[in-house]
Design goal:
With about 290 residues, the chain is of the alpha/beta class. The chain has one domain: P-loop containing nucleotide triphosphate hydrolases (Rossmann fold, 3-Layer(aba) Sandwich), CATH 3.40.50. About 40% of the residues lie in helices and about 25% in strands. It has ten helices and nine strands. The structure holds adenosine-5'-triphosphate (ATP). Adenosine-5'-triphosphate binds next to strand 1, strand 2 and helix 4.
């Protein structure tokens, strides 16, 4: 049994060492000058996002219903189509150097809005303008669970536009930032959700994106990780980057954001200084409970 385990670990280690992605020889792309703080980074203009959900219950009943499903077999498996209007006419301007928190109850549309701004969700009405590169950090970051953390560092780094050499240079910093130690040599599917979120955060911030979007990842870390994250967010803002943070922790929003947007059932209820919006939101929560 032990021998088998050792062999499995050897194989994984071998894979982790294999960071030998060939450099194309091309020089790293020239860095554009940082944008001026205060200029618009994201403009959302009357944004609507709708999900189409397939597979709802058929409204037909009995023999006729069964017959109809049989006849329309190619369509029968999808059932009824329901539309979920997740974001309803949201408009805002976020500026370079700003840190914007998104708050609201479960299902308010926070993650959907973030994904739409990152270009990962089609919007059904309205417009989004983005100035710069976006890095969305959240449950759906495009890493490969079957591969080791080390391989994912390379994949994520390349996806962010780093060269293989740049990823190798930053590799140790990324692993240290994530605080996952030797787990970096194990497949990500063996990580706890917190470990995976920390590694995604460390990868996403390795390239100092212009716009960083964080979806609840900070909630998963311990105090030391949260401090490192806060320092990283400050660093990004100093480079005139814009940070969006979705969190149910109103304390995190107050600590890390100067502005907050409150969403409720897809609509924007408030947009203003983080402390004021959070205070209003807490009052509303107290009334509900
Ligand atoms: N993939 C999906 N397919 C269909 N509906 C979805 C999908 N993802 C989210 N929704 C719906 O869209 C609405 C907004 O969801 P969203 O996840 O954006 O809210 P949220 O504010 O981020 O919620 P939470 O705080 O619970 O994470 C909800 O009604 C949700 O059920």
């Amino acid at each position: 049994m032990a021998a088998t385990d050792d062999r499995e670990f050897d194989e994984i280690d071998h894979e982790a060492d294999d960071l030998d992605v060939e450099d194309s020889g091309a020089p790293a792309p020239p860095q554009a000058p940082p944008p001026a703080p205060g200029t618009p980074a994201v403009i959302a203009d009357d944004v609507h996002v709708k999900y189409r959900v397939f597979g709802g219950r058929q409204s037909t009943a009995g023999e006729m219903g069964r017959l109809r499903r049989l006849v329309n077999r190619s369509r029968a498996h999808v059932g009824a189509v329901t539309e979920v209007h997740a974001v309803r006419g949201v408009s805002f301007v976020a500026r370079h150097g700003e840190s914007v928190g998104l708050i609201g109850m479960n299902g308010a549309g926070k993650s959907t809005l973030l994904r739409a701004v990152a270009g990962l969700m089609p919007i059904s009405e309205g417009r989004v303008f983005v100035d710069g590169t976006t890095a969305l950090l959240g449950v759906n970051a495009a890493l490969v669970p079957a591969l080791t953390g080390a391989r994912n560092v390379m994949i994520g780094g390349l996806a962010l536009g780093l060269t293989p050499d740049q990823v190798r240079e930053r590799f140790d910093d990324i692993v240290e930032f994530a605080g996952i130690g030797d787990f970096i040599n194990l497949p990500m599917k063996a990580y706890s959700s917190g470990m995976a979120a920390r590694l995604r955060f460390a990868i996403s911030t390795a390239a100092i994106p212009d716009i960083l979007m964080i979806d609840e990842a900070l909630a998963t870390g311990d105090a030391a990780f949260r401090n490192r994250s806060r320092a990283k967010i400050e660093e990004i803002r100093e480079h005139a980057g814009t940070v969006f943070l979705v969190s149910h922790s109103t304390q995190s929003i107050e600590r890390m954001c100067d502005r907050a947007i409150w969403l409720d059932q897809g609509r924007m209820l408030a947009d203003g200084p983080a402390r004021e919006v959070v205070a209003e939101y807490r009052k509303a929560l107290q009334k509900k409970s």
